[in-house]
Amino acid sequence: MARLYEYQGKEILKKLGILVPEGRCISKEDEASDVAEKLGKPCVLKAQVWTTGRLEAGGIRFADIPGKAQEAARQVFDTRIKGSKVEKVLVEEKLNVEREFYAGIIVSNSYKVKGPVLVFSSEGGSSIEEVSRRNPERISRLDVDYLRGVDEEAACKVISEVSFDGFVLREDLRQELVRVICDLYSAFKQYDARGLEVNPLVLTKDHRFVAADCHMTIDDNSVFRHPELGIELPRDMDRPPTEHEKKAWKIEEGDYRGTGYFAQMVPEIKGDGWLGFHGIGGGGAMLGASAFVSRGFKIANYADTSGDPPASKIYSVIKYILSQPIDGYVLMGACLANQEQWHHAHAVAKAFKEEAKKRPGFPVIILIAGNKEKEAHEIITEAFKGLSLRWELYGRDYIYNTDFIADRVEELVKAYQQEKKKKLKG
User: Fold this and answer.
1) Its pTM surpasses 0.70
2) DSSP secondary-structure letter at 337?
3) What is the mean pLDDT of the chain?
4) What is the mean pLDDT of residues 128-151?
5) pLDDT attached to residue 33
6) What does 31-94 look like in DSSP terms, one character per residue?
7) Which tens digit of pLDDT belongs to each residue from 209-233?
8) Distance, CA of 251 to CA of 379 (rounded, Å)
9) What is the span of the domain harbouring residue 67?
């Protein structure tokens, strides 16, 4: 899934006739005063990040008068939220709230549903999970028939099934709420969303329904249909992609022959003790990663080349792994893969023939098993003869022995680090 920023989601809602707070997204703190002056009323400044916890981290500030907006913007731009740098801030009017609601459409992967689920709550502002635990009578759900969609009848149904806890929703407001819910589903469908949540959906004191916040994710397979959204990397991430990740995405983009996945574990890789991690498949590879972390190593990236990709695609992924400042490379094929493993062997052979001279003594630990395992091992063994690397190669006898592999990684990496320190002192 590809996440949109709050301001992007609100732009979509506005196009479809749903009210959103007046305001504008800025990228420089000195722009905040201009926006606040034009609003001419108290405003709220909200960090545009893909993670939760903005308020607690100081990523949401208020300015009662336009003259305080720039200082509030500076404070938001200076905030790091779960490691993410704030690069955009939404400056918008502060709403006069009478009541908060929740409305959302989320794709359910449950085998009983396998489709969109419309959720409405008469209590907004809190997480829907928290409301469900505390006041389940305030939430209603409807499995959506995708061919029918959400019409007025469906919207009326979800509204009528919740408790408003004594709040009287006038008929004209009920009809307006029905329209908003129908329009939300239109936005969900039109933009190929996997999730669209408005929390809170505010009823203002002058009786307008306004989307005070918006969380929207787009199906990554449909991103090409929406170039206007400017999505650089169609993956579910809680931070903007790094330059490495943007470039590595080109391996996957347009080439559907197997997987060529690359993601950095942290935005910036600093210091020693980082491992370049390359998996084939998920479960066993992640067990290996866990064993490395328990020994004090830091995983620089997670890469996956499963699904029988060609050697050229695997080679490109390896080169991106090696372009990081790492102290070792680990290929964890901790599975009996049904793909032909000699494609990995050819990729590994080519990449390290090119890299060996640049990094003498560099640790390379390879676990590879499955179809063409014998041939793959022969290719790697022949290619690595004479290369100035610390390398070890393991097969199917070790796919369940991740602790052993981790021990070998630890020994080879420590030897490499000690050698580097001696050279620096010398």
Assistant:
1) yes
2) B
3) 92
4) 93
5) 95
6) GHHHHHHHHTS-EEEEE--SSS-HHHHT-EEEESSGGGHHHHHHHHHT-EETTEEP--EEEEEP
7) 999 999 999 998 898 899 999 888 8
8) 24
9) 22-93
CATH of the domain at 140: 3.30.470.20
Does 124 share its domain with 152? yes
pLDDT of residue 426: 64
CA 25-26-31 angle, 5° bins: 130
* Domain C-terminal end among 176, 203, 229: 229
Contact 372, 299 (CB under 8 A): no
Question: Tokens at residue 43, please?
Answer: 């405003």
- How many angstroms separate the first and last alpha carbons of the chain? 50
Residues 6+ apart with CB under 8 A from 380: 345, 348, 349, 366, 368, 393
Which tens digits make up the pLDDT trace of 336-359? 778 899 999 999 999 999 999 999
Q: What is the spatial distance between Cα 319 and Cα 306, in angstroms, rounded to a whole number?
A: 17
Q: Specify whether 156 is located in the same domain as 255.
A: no
Residues 253 and 206 in one domain: no
Q: How far is CA 22 from the centre of its chain?
A: 28
Residues 219 and 270 in one domain: no
Domain-ending residue, one of 168, 197, 229? 229
| CA 123 to mean position of chain CA atoms | 27
- CATH number of the domain within which 57 lies: 3.30.1490.20
- The angle subtended at Cα 2 by Cα 257 and Cα 262, nearest 5°, is 45
- For helices 171-190 and 152-160, give the axis angle rounded to 10 degrees: 120
Tokens of residue 407, six digits: 């021990």
CB-CB contact of 99 with 171 (8 Å) = no
Percent of the chain surpassing pLDDT 70? 99
**Using CA atoms in the order 22, 24, 30, 32, what is the torsion angle rounded to 10 degrees?**
20
